[in-house]
Every structure is written in C-alpha cells, then in structure tokens.
Amino acid sequence: MSEWTVHGSRTIYTSPWVELDLVDVEPPGHPRYEHHLVKWAPVAATVLLNDRDEVLLMWRHRFATQTWNWEIPSGIVEAGEDLTVAAAREVLEETGYQIDPRRLVPLAYNQPIGGMSNAEHHVFLGRDAVHVTEPVDAHEADRIEWIPLDRIHEMIDRREIVAGVAVTGLLQLLARRCAY
C-alpha cells in the first residue's frame, strides 16, 4: 500500500493550544475527500520515581470526559522550548517539585490519535525530585500523592489511571523496571 496524497488543506479554527484543519486527501485507489486534522503542540510529561519505588501522581477531574483519575505531570511544550525543560517546568508548576531537566531519561513516546491528529507525547523518567513550593497551577490537581509502583497495574485495571500519557509512561516504566 502506498501513501495517501494530500492535495491541500485549510484551517477552520486556531487558538494558542489547538488548530483544526480540513485536509483534501486521496487514499490509494479511493476518491478524494476532506479529512479532519487536529494539530497540537507536543506534550512533555514526567513519571517521577522516588527511592521507595513510588510515583508522584495527581488526582484530578477532566471535564471533557467527566472522569476523576490519577495522572502524571504533563503539559504543552512552548514554542522553541526543549522537551526536557518543558517536562521539568510542568512538574514544578503542577506539583511544586523541582527536578533537573538534564537528568531526565526518555521513557516513552507515542502518537495517541495518529489517524486524525499530529499529537505527540514525550514521557520522561525523573528522579531526585525536591519539594520547593506549592504548585503554581493549584487548579491542576485535587490531591498530589506518592503511590507505590506495585499498585499501578491494579489502578489501571480499575480505571483510576486512564489518561493515555500516564498509562503509556507508567506501563513503560513497569515493563522496563530493571533498566531504570
């Protein structure tokens, strides 16, 4: 099978966080049509692991899905910002913990909605977090807690952790636990 042909696109909505385009595409052997494309800035996220094999999670509500769940610190990478710097910034803003971006280790990468979005999630592993302040973005989480890593599988099974970037990063850490 060959690649789809893109004949052009037009933006129908844009904001600082998201852009929605209609793209004139032609799949091989099929007629042309307009396909929605949602464009996002990259997301940087961090799984923070302490010396007791606990991960730092944030309990939060997501209005779009009407769910409460545990998540890892994550957010949009600003234009021109280094991925690790963005990941460390988000940790500080959302949790009040400081980490050294130079010590972050790539943990996972995914494209969560590849069929209709350019979204990219970059997940890093962080250690040696130091609590230095209260979260700047206090609205980001109802609670922030260190959760034992051996509870993560059951929490995912019970749908207490459902955010794709968190599930991806945490499962990758569990799968390669000996390597980290």
Summarize the structure in short:
With 180 residues, the chain is of the alpha+beta class.
General description of the model:
With 180 residues, the chain is of the alpha+beta class. Helix content is 17%, strand content 40%. It has 3 helices and 12 strands; from the N terminus they run E-E-E-E-E-E-E-H-E-E-E-E-E-H-H. The chain has helices at 83-95, 152-157, 164-175, and strands at residues 5-14, 18-26, 33-40, 43-48, 54-62, 67-71, 74-76, 97-98, 105-110, 121-126, 130-131, 143-148. The longest helix is centred in the middle third of the chain and has 13 residues, at 83-95.
SSE topology string: EEEEEEEHEEEEEHH
Q: Treating each run of at least 4 consecutive H or I residues as one helix, how many helices?
A: 3
User: Which overall shape is indicated by the principal axes computed on the Cα atoms?
Assistant: elongated
Tally of individual domains = 2
- Mean pLDDT rating: 94
Radius of gyration: 18 Å
Q: Can you list the strand order of the major beta sheet?
A: 7-4-10-9
